[in-house]
Write a structure and sequence with these properties.
- The protein is α/β, with parallel strands linked by helices.
- The chain has one domain: Alpha/Beta hydrolase fold, catalytic domain (Rossmann fold), CATH 3.40.50.1820.
- Helix content is about 30%, strand content about 20%.
- The strands form 2 sheets. The chain has a 10-stranded mixed sheet with strand order 1-2-4-3-5-6-7-12-11-10, with helices on both faces. A two-stranded antiparallel ribbon has the order 8-9.
- Helix 2 packs parallel to helix 5.
- The longest helix is centred in the first third of the chain and has 16 residues.
- The chain starts with 19 loop residues before the first helix and ends with a helix.
């Protein structure tokens, strides 16, 4: 996963902006927003019992003192999804979790790219090299036909993948003392778009999201909830598959990566001063100022559509996510 050479980040890079009226028309013309609302209530019910963040322990103590999967173990779980499909996910339970005297444990959902297997994504995203492998439950869900609902090529009804995430969360809540203030989403490409969709539409469940080379299709990344959510958008400057600048793709239209970050900067109440620019290996990080929720944008000087930055990015993603709490 070598990084290519390139220039520096342009804070005011050209992008295909979406006029407000066009966005409204797209949302009204789409069935996505109303249908997704029907499944969000279920996600909210799973986490609504969580007390304010100051409370040291979650009030819901219905976890299993002898969970099916032991700490430090990785297993594949078959799930009969409520949409009628048979789906699987891979779960890794952090080695620090003690079922006999449990402390609330965070959960990281990691979404693969289009037509990428769970196993391929596990290898490329390399979360097993990060502190998440010891400190969290890491879930690798499987998309239907290798895709997530954030893309125009995805199959099934809107909201089906969020309902699938809801089912997994319900299972975890039965087996483990889940820290409901620290549920995170991350993903690559189409999976990065799925992580952003959860950040867009389900901030009441997810404490933060991070997206690498994300495909931010319209209109599913429009019409977001207004509540703040920490966001990290990571992209290669010259990605040949999912353009940094957005535009037409797979019979749909992609939002530019920098525009997505600016949308979250606005939503998170960041001020109008220029972001602080700092160097990371192979690129630059933009940290927006005065935000009610951390908002960061990382642009790598690369011309590849990969989990750009390799293990450094994996560590950066987990360091960012794990510092956030809902």
């Amino acid at each position: 996963m070598l990084l290519g050479a390139g220039g520096t980040v342009a804070v005011h890079a050209q992008s295909e902006t979406v006029p407000v009226q066009d966005a409204i028309e797209q949302i009204e013309a789409s069935s996505y927003i109303p249908e997704i609302e029907q499944v969000l209530g279920g996600l909210d019910r799973i986490v609504q019992a969580a007390p304010p963040p100051a409370a040291p322990v979650i009030a819901d103590n219905t976890f299993d003192p002898q969970p099916r999967i032991d700490p430090g173990q990785t297993q594949t779980v078959e799930l009969a999804a409520i949409d009628g499909t048979s789906r699987r996910y891979v779960i890794h339970v952090g080695s620090k979790y003690n079922p006999e005297k449990p402390e609330p444990i965070p959960v990281l959902f990691a979404f693969h790219g289009w037509r990428q297997s769970i196993e391929e994504f596990m290898e490329s995203s390399r979360f097993h090299t990060t502190a998440a492998w010891d400190d969290a439950i890491v879930i690798y869900p499987e998309g239907v036909d290798g895709a997530w609902e954030s893309a125009p090529y995805a199959t099934g009804r809107p909201g089906k993948d969020i309902a699938y995430v809801q089912q997994i969360l319900a299972q975890l809540d039965d087996d483990y003392l889940v820290d409901k203030h620290r549920i995170y989403a991350a993903g690559f490409s189409n999976g990065g778009g799925m992580a952003a969709v959860l950040g867009c539409h389900a901030p009441g469940t997810f404490a933060a999201f991070a997206s690498v080379a994300g495909a931010y299709y319209q209109p599913v990344n429009l019409g977001c909830k207004t509540s703040a959510i920490p966001s990290m958008v990571i992209h290669a400057s010259d990605d040949p598959i999912v353009s940094y600048r957005g535009g037409p793709r797979n019979r749909g239209k992609l939002l530019p990566a920098l525009e997505v970050s600016h949308q979250y900067a606005y939503r998170n109440g960041c001020d109008a001063t220029p972001p602080v620019v700092s160097d990371v290996p192979g690129g630059q990080r933009l940290s927006f100022n005065g935000c009610s929720a951390a908002t960061q944008h990382v642009r790598f000087n690369s011309a590849e559509h990969i989990w750009v930055g390799g293990e450094d990015t994996s560590d950066m993603v987990w360091d960012f996510l794990s510092a956030q709490s809902r």
